[in-house]
Amino acid sequence: MDTLAPLKRVSLDEASKQTDAASSTMSSAQTRVAAPLHQKESLDQSEHTRTAGEAHDALEAGQEKPVRNYRLHQGTNRFCLGGRLMTSGDSLLPLIGSSLVAVLMPALFWAFNGAWLWTELGKGGKASVFVFLALVLFMWASMARTALSDPGILPRDLDPDPPQRYLEPDPDDPDSTGQWIVEVKYVQVPGKGYVASKWCPTCHIYRPPRTSHCRLCDNCVERTDHHCAFLNNCIGRRNYRPFILFLTTAVLAAFYAIAFTLYHIVHALTAPGSTGWRWDTIGALVVAVFAVLFATPLAGLLAYHVRLMWSNRTTIELLRPAALRGGLVDPSTGLPLLVEEGGTDNPWRRSNPLGNVKDALGAPRRGSRKAKEGLGVKWRDWAPREGAREAETAVDMRPDAAGSAVEGQPARV
Predict the structure, then answer these.
(1) For 79-104, what is each residue's pLDDT tens digit?
(2) By the 8 A CB rule, do 132 and 106 touch?
(3) What pLDDT, in 10s, does the model give residues 6-52?
């Protein structure tokens, strides 16, 4: 179990709210609801939610047998192996296609180049084959870990009854009606200013900074970067490191295949007694073309993420309008704080770019609780209790956990 101290520190490095915050923040910086939450049974009642509720009721009725947490999960994710592996509930076809490509490229390399390297180039050729095999194994392992692991899903119902206030109707607008709005909490970024922590009406939690709700997975994910359709999973705090490792090893393996394929073709065509193009050299040319097509988009994506890591940004943050990328707000008004007003275009960027890379790749990872056993009521009522180890993560993932935030007051972390 992670200790409380690093969790408090980590809370500033979570993923940012998605681009829909750009328009809503400029108007009111508030999350709008139609009625007080305590007058509703649920904001987003779904069949899946009701199923989870029935499981809770059964446990409260006296069932003693622990239930794995993934069985009470209310998102759209699919689980297997007792919750140890998970993927998005979206279509699996892109993931299947990506997996086939990741297997086909090494298979073609071995069929047309590997055997030739192994038999014709002696120890050097055998060493080359082993290096390529190591790159491919790392690529497969990191791809599987990225696609099938918890990206950093936050538990639900940490803030089921958020503070609200009633907004009076506009007297100048005859069609205006009063409405309840959920209060926004503010988290201080040391030396930079305040960022908004907004309440998620689906997950019933205050989102930590840099956290977004994925509409495809129906979860709030820590430090969300993007949802990858080809891996069928969100890319967030817990799987960003293996995602970068996957891109790196895939690009290296593709370039490695291109280099040795060209060497094979040139050697076969220029060797004494060469008979010109043979079936293996024609196949090697096919491998080279396939590897170029495989490497080009991945190399571009890797370069893009190196740029993001160098400046300590996420894809969601970069896609926001320029005026809202910084995310700093004036807690007295709730409006975005522009650069010319004393804000910054990126409150998370450190002076040392290597520190930015370390934040992205080396930050502590909160352990996933999806596959762990526990009474279902603990998942629903995950609240701070004296001596309750199950509540430690929930306490420190709240924006006001490390400070003394109350309604209308900023929270310090």
Answers:
(1) 888 888 899 988 899 999 999 999 99
(2) yes
(3) 333 333 434 333 333 333 333 343 444 444 554 444 444 444 444 44
Catalytic residue numbers read 228
Q: Which long-range contacts (CB under 8 A, 24 or more apart) does 407-411 make?
A: 407/163, 407/183, 408/183, 410/185, 410/186, 410/187, 410/188, 410/194, 410/331, 411/185, 411/186, 411/187, 411/188, 411/197
In whole angstroms, what is the distance from residue 5 CA to residue 306 CA?
29
C-alpha to C-alpha distance for 252 and 214, rounded to whole angstroms: 31
Q: Which DSSP category does 78 fall into?
A: E
Residue 396 near residue 13, CB atoms below 8 Å: no
Q: What are phi and psi of 29, to 5 degrees?
A: 55, 30
* Residues 6 or more apart in contact with residue 164 via CB below 8 angstroms: 33, 36, 37, 180, 181, 182, 183
DSSP codes joined into one string, 331-369: TTT--B--GGGT--S-TT--SSHHHHHHHHHSS--PPP-
The helix/strand count (H/E) of the chain reads as 12, 17
Angle at the Cα of 303 (from 14 to 135), degrees rounded to 5? 95
The Cα-based distances of 270 to 19, 161, 285, 338 in angstroms read 57, 76, 15, 64
Question: Taking a C-beta distance cutoff of 8 angstroms, is the pair 212, 16 a contact?
Answer: yes
Domain chopping of the chain, boundaries: 1-72+155-225+314-413, 91-149+239-311
Tell me the per-residue pLDDT of 315-340, one tens digit each, with 9 for 90 and over: 998 887 765 666 788 777 777 776 66
